[in-house]
Design goal:
The protein contains 17 helices and 23 strands. A hairpin with a 2-residue loop joins strand 12 and strand 13. The longest helix is centred in the middle third of the chain and has 15 residues. The structure holds iron/sulfur cluster.
């Protein structure tokens, strides 16, 4: 039998982890609120989506592979009702993309819980072993199910007590939302690596990975959940506990550069604006004689606008993106391969021909798409192609919930900037400095993780961290 690999459409970008959402709002249509919040968080994961609701002490969970709009329809949403809901969109970071690993995860090992998690536990294998010794079985292979099992089997009187005692045992990155029959509890790892925000919806409260999920449902951003903090949303309203104190904050700097939506607010910035500043600083650090600035859409747009603003160069859309592109399993075939399949981008010769073009993008991982883009622009008649990247070179993998290929696959691994420019066949190449990134976001390496750029891992030796499929290596999964 021939097996087909999906045709890669976006593998040149780091793959975002997951998006989480939770709402406690009796009297509101909570499943519809969760649906639209997840719709706004879709960029954080396209492999699976799920919603769990609780009505009268009964938790119902619906999750499946696919986009939010593919998994849910009117009928399914109507079957999900109650006083509270949590939701999840997923791209797998630990565990494969199988259905068993779709979230919210439901477990009842003494306490019924539904759980949605964004991040990656670096001591998952150790915790899994402990739970197995206690006779706890798993259906899937994700670190999120380990967290669900720890909380579900914990003897603490309330879910808040359970979280308080389980949190110090968890290592790595976790922004987690848990629902029981009585409460929604959200907690964030002590380093605050992955984002988590708190909002208000009328007199009730919501939590989400990004504030764009609040905007779409008419909720208002209150603040971020603090690193090491637990918030609980119940009939009593909002209660918070600072579970772990005194740990150095290490928020993911890449959320500012690429992952989060440009209209999300994070650490006091609207990301569209800080990305624009990255473009301005990039011009200051690496100016170039050129005729036109174009972006690699859509993620390069804000930085390209900033670059054009600072340089005074005109800006136009020289590359058009197919906005509806998703992974396809249809193989292009010999003929299309020969001509070069323009699956994602199409250049406009009328805009670029005869010009010296500056192409602004936010990041390069493997370089395949960038190389294709440079080739396309040359074929469309561009006289020179200068690449400007609004982040430093990516040279190290992420162990905290982002999939960005192995070190060996990264184009910047073991290469100088000139060598990368040669590989990409561009006339010049420049990356924004790490200092430039921090200047743009008004932050510092003291309170951020920038390990994929710098190799400085805030949680210690990366070699100790579990790989994406660590649990698959040890778990025996029954054939379905
Ligand atoms: S390694 Fe990179 S992507 Fe991962 S948390 Fe750190 S900054 Fe973010």
């Amino acid at each position: 039998m021939t097996t087909f690999e999906p045709v890669p459409t976006d593998r040149d970008k780091p793959r975002d982890e997951c998006g989480v959402f939770g709402v406690y709002a009796p009297g509101h249509d909570v499943s519809r609120l969760a649906y639209f919040a997840l719709y706004a968080l879709q960029h954080r994961g396209q492999e699976s989506a799920g919603i769990a609701t609780c009505e009268g002490g009964h938790i119902t969970t619906l999750r499946d592979s696919g986009l939010v709009s593919q998994v849910f329809d009117e009928e399914k949403l109507r079957a999900l009702y109650g006083d509270m809901a949590i939701g999840h969109v997923r791209y797998s970071t630990t565990g494969g993309g199988s259905w068993e690993n779709a979230q919210p995860i439901w477990r009842d090992d003494g306490r019924e819980v539904a759980l949605a998690h964004n991040g990656n536990l670096t001591n998952a294998v150790e915790l899994w072993g402990e739970l197995k010794e206690r006779g706890i079985d798993f259906r899937g292979t994700s670190d999120s199910e380990i967290m669900a099992a720890l909380l579900s089997s914990h003897g603490g009187k309330t879910i808040e007590d359970a979280v308080e005692q389980v949190m110090p045992r968890l290592e790595g990155a976790y922004s987690t939302v848990v629902m029981t029959k009585h409460a929604i509890v959200a907690f964030r790892d002590p380093h605050g690596i992955r984002p988590l925000s708190l909002g208000r919806l009328d007199d009730r409260f919501v939590v989400a990975s990004e504030s764009c999920a609040f905007d779409i449902i008419g909720a208002e951003l209150m603040r971020e959940v603090h690193p090491g903090e637990m918030v609980s949303l119940t009939e009593r309203g909002l209660e918070t506990r600072q579970v772990v104190r005194g740990v150095k904050r290490s928020s993911c700097v890449f959320e500012h550069i690429y992952f989060s939506r440009p209209d999300s607010r994070m650490e006091g910035n609207v990301l569209q604006q800080s990305r624009g500043r990255m473009g301005e600083i990039l011009w200051r650090e690496a100016p170039v004689d050129a005729d036109l600035v174009i972006a690699v859409p859509d993620s390069g747009n804000p930085a390209a606008a900033g670059f054009a603003r600072a340089s005074g160069l005109p800006r136009d859309d020289g590359l058009i993106k197919n906005r509806y592109v998703a992974r396809t399993f249809i193989q292009p075939g010999q003929e299309l391969r020969k001509h070069g399949l323009r699956l994602k981008f199409n250049p406009l010769p009328e805009i670029v021909a005869g010009k010296r073009i500056v192409v602004v993008d936010d990041s390069i991982v493997r370089g395949n798409t960038t190389r294709q883009i440079v080739g396309m622009l040359r074929k469309a008649g561009a006289r020179e192609v200068h690449m400007r990247i609004s982040a430093p070179p990516i040279r190290n993998p992420c162990h905290y919930g982002v999939d960005m290929s192995t070190r060996e696959e990264m184009i910047a691994h073991g290469r100088t900037i000139d060598e990368i420019a040669d590989e990409l066949d561009c006339d010049s190449l420049a990356y924004l400095s790490m200092e430039g990134v921090y200047e743009a976001i008004g932050g510092s390496p003291e309170d951020h993780c920038d390990a994929c750029f710098s190799g400085r891992y805030p949680l210690g030796d990366p070699e100790d961290a579990n790989g994406k499929f660590a649990l698959e290596d040890i778990a025996v999964i029954p054939a379905s």
